[in-house]
Amino acid sequence: MQNKRTWLFLILLLILFSLIVAQQQQINDLNDELTAVQQQCDMLEKQLTEHITPPSQAEGAINDGIVVE
Question: Any alpha helices (H) in the chain, and if so which ranges?
Fold first, then answer.
């Protein structure tokens, strides 16, 4: 009887270990995907800042002269 319990315990430990390894692999995959998305966001932000031009000095001077009371 003790031998059956030992085998059952070892099988349960093996199943638990397999589940932990699978969960860790999913975490690693999600981490890789998150890194890729962060890199894409950084690239898009860089592209946006390169294509958006700041207002010219003349436009800034016009807006500075407006006073609202």
Answer: 2-51, 57-64
Whole-angstrom Cα distance, residue 3 to residue 25? 33
55 Cβ contact partners less than 8 Å away, ≥ 6 residues apart: 63
In angstroms, rounded to a whole number, what is the distance separating the alpha carbons of residues 27 and 25?
5
Count the neighbouring beta carbons within 10 Å of the beta carbon of residue 22.
10
Global pTM reads: 0.59
C-alpha–C-alpha distance, residues 33 and 24, integer Å:
14
- Alpha-carbon distance of 54 to 63, in angstroms, equals 14
Cα 23 to the center of its chain, rounded Å: 18
Residue 15 has pLDDT above 90, yes or no: yes
Look-up: residue for tokens 């800042």?
49
